[in-house]
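ok so heres the complex, two chains, lmk if somethin looks off
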Amino acid sequence: MNSIKLNILATAIFCLTTGSTIAQDTIWINSGEWMQSADTMPALRFNASAVFDTVNTSFNIQENNTWALTVINTDSVAHTFTITTSVIFTENIPAGEEVTFEVPALPFGTYRYYSSDERGEVLGLSGLIKVGINSDLQFHWNLADWMPSRMDSAAAGNPVDWNSGYIPRYFSINSHTYPNTANDPLGTVTMNLGDTCIISIVNGGFMEHVLHFHGFHVEILAATVQTSRVGWIKDTLPIHKGEGLTLQLVAAQTGVYPVHNHNLVAVTNAGFYPGGMLTMITVQP
Amino acid sequence: MICWRLCCITATILLNTSSITAQVLQPLQPLPPIMFTEMNGTMTLDDGMELPIWGYGLSADGYITLPGPLLEYETGENVNLVFSNPSPESHTIHLHGLDVNQANDGVPTTSFLVVTGQNGAYNFTASQPGTFLYHCHVTTTLHLTMGMYGMILVRHPDGTLFEDGPTYHSDAPLLFSDLEIATNLAPVQSYPFHDIRPDYFMVNGLSGSQLDSGPSILSCPFGSQLALRLGSMAYTRTRLIFPPSLNATCWMSDGRPVPTPFSADTLDIFPGERFTVLISPPSSTFDGTFEVQYWDMLNSQHAHSNFIRFRDASLSTPPSLTPPTIIIAPNPARNSITIPAIQPWTIWDLSGRQLLSGHSSTIDISTLPTGNFVLRTSSGSSPFVKY
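and the predicted structre for the whole thing:
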């Protein structure tokens, strides 16, 4: 791969990072805070501009095409940009620098891109790449779980004790927790009776998740871990750590139906129900 | 056993010298079961501890169980599930996986609540065969954890799993779940709900040595297949490990056939998932177990194992016929029998299969075929004849 290191202040070619096929994208590693209930947590995100946004940006690219990406790291430490496919693709992004590199061609599906360094992983540097999804009606859910004490420790530069008990306090979809998930234009599924939509999901958290659809079954179009399940039609779908799933949903009946994690610890905010990894599907007549 | 669905048809054939007149009385239309809920039940753990539960039961039985009663339907059946709530809090029934419409979805904010002292009814068509679940969707983190869940089985009518699917001998519903004992002991103190740590792990509400007796022992005849109806209402990931000799093959998940049936010697079941797996005894002398592991989903730690016994049907021990300790009247009987007191009972055939269970003193046996059976209660057992 070709890496071109430039100064952070160099002019970057910026292209739209969501919704369209692009030849080159630029993303920033930004630091900020993520507030939920009574907790304010240190946060890192991949954003489409130098302004911190709590939502990691997503990409929509054509399948089997290589792709030039520029990453500008405004954080104080280096990050390893990573995509896990059939092989693990990595690119080092030094602190305060900008790196342009070529992302290998990816087959149809949904993939997680992330920082594979402890600080980046714990503070939320994890996004989603949709490949070959050309539907006019598409949504995505970037799943994550959050343990504030671990985040505070990582932000302070301490090594993560992976053997200590993990008890996440928040569970999010696109960095939103219910009820805010129901107002997420990227993730709240709204469609008309008879429509077909594509839902792309990645699990960017530290635990397995399992989503249950009310009212509908969905077909698994692609999976990066559970590859043998492509073609299955299910209403309850496990998503392994780091996995990408691509689902097709046909709006066969009208109404408002929840989709939620069926590991019930994950439908809470700071221990209160309902919250967390819960959103709604609305099908209009 | 779909006791309430079966209708008595009495045929009276009148003969005279000139003609044969057949008068078929209209079938009786027994009412479908009414589900109810209570929040004052108990269950017995494998160490003998009595633990408070909330749960569902059948109004005709008058008591709740963990899990709730198995609901059985036939594919295409139009169901009117009546739900009565005499308990102190509002509840619902969410029909997990049946893709019912919004009005019948059992979610308080989008469907309806059944408040204290009220009845509700869920109307839906059981359009797909397979294994489904039900549970309360009110403060799910508490109500489900306390025991408000059960399994739904929708059978394909011709003895196959689904259209053009494999045939099988019989069903074995296995619902995996867990609970945190401290939560059941003090549910009002159960906050925070993100930190529920299960410490008791069940199969059909039983655990440990409870699974090594009576109806928990699975069987089917050598040369035939037992359909394991697997579902999870746990906080943990359940992993089933079958001996390869059982030829465990997964045919369905979440009420749909899988595109390609696959060998399922190791099968993970996440909370809310269901699978249908066929197993068969490798010989007429087989008597073994398969393992059910429970894995903490937060830290991927193995938390517990249960073992389920499976053997060839010829090895199933028929219930003891002597001494008869329960007075059954009449005996022989055609439609119903009576036992001295209201108490939990089960009825078995002589192959060791449990056919009916209940909690009443008058027992409807009209659905049984003619033959010899054994009625069991906690105080003993007695044979009876159905004619």
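quick notes: Chain A is about 5% helix and 45% strand. thats all i got rn
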